[in-house]
Structure formats: structure tokens, C-alpha cells
Amino acid sequence: MTEQDEKPFLQLVVCAAGVAAGVGKLITAAQERHWEVGVTATPVALGGFFDAGAVEAQTGRPVRSAWRTPADPRPFPAPDAVVVAPATFNTLNKWAAGSADTLALGTLCEAYGLGVPIAVLPCVGDALAAHPAYRASLERLRAMGVRIGAPYTGEADETGRRPDFGWERALDLLERPGAGS
Predict the structure, then answer these.
(1) Where is the Flavoprotein domain (predicted)?
(2) Would you tell me which CATH number, out of the four given (3.10.180.10, 3.40.50.1950, 3.40.50.300, 3.40.1160.10), belongs to the domain 3-67+76-175?
(3) Which terminus of the chain is more solvent-facing, meaning fewer CB atoms within 10 Å of its CB: N or C?
């Protein structure tokens, strides 16, 4: 058994939000907490929201975004936990509705069915967060046992400074059973 096989596997789903460029911070934090990490990105996120080459070098695994064929080997082991960060309005609403039209959404729908712990860090602006579909989606996801962190709007303070995304919050949610908002 290799060292990679001995560590629990964290499946990280990355959505298309500006803060996704900092996903390496979450990978580093997870690795420091002895997780092996694999990244699945939404198709739009993979299109330039983060450096996929740097993530592949950091994790030692390909970044996934497209379905594999039945003949292709599975690039990741079964996840011990899943983190969605940053989680966008679109992904959260489609996931709550049971849509699996991308690999990222299929991964999330399947993880729930397998009983895998899931932590989410929403990254949704106030205007979209006010939409009733979004609020209903969060309620449904919470009812499914998904651990949802405080939302990040990216709004600057009075000095013009944007707050840190706080990537490690996702790992904290996983470590505290029943945690989340």
C-alpha cells in the first residue's frame, strides 16, 4: 500500500468564482491535515478561473472536468469527504435540484447517495443570495446533511479591502460533525 492509499481522500469541487484562483490554499491546508486531494472543476472554472497545471502539480493528480469513458481507469479513489469551494449560485441550485449534467454535479449528487460527508463554502453575491430559489436550495442541502459555511459575498469593506475567503473553514466543517449553518 502506498502513502497515498493510506491517507483519506478529499474530493474538492471547484466552481467558477474569482476566488477560485486561491484554491491551492485549501489543497495545502488539506494536505497539512493529512488528506490526499483530487480536484474536479466545473467546466467554466476549468476555463481559466484557477491554474489547473499548478493544482495538478500540487495534488499529483489530473484536474477532472469531463466524464471518463467506461474503458478509462478511475483517476481518483472513492472520496472519504467532499468539499465544494467556492460554491456558486448555479452549482448550488442545480445540485439541490438533483441535476447531474456536469461531472462536478454528478460527483456531488453521487456523494450524497453514498453518505459521504460534504462541506460547502458558498461564494454568492447578495443580489443572487436574495433569490428564493437559492434560499430553498440551501434549505434542501442542509436537510440532506450538507455542512454549509457562512456565505462569502466578496464585498469590500469601507477601506476597499476584500475579506479573505477562509478556505480552511471547509476542513473545519468536515471535522465538526453536524457543523455548518
Answers:
(1) 12-106
(2) 3.40.50.1950
(3) N
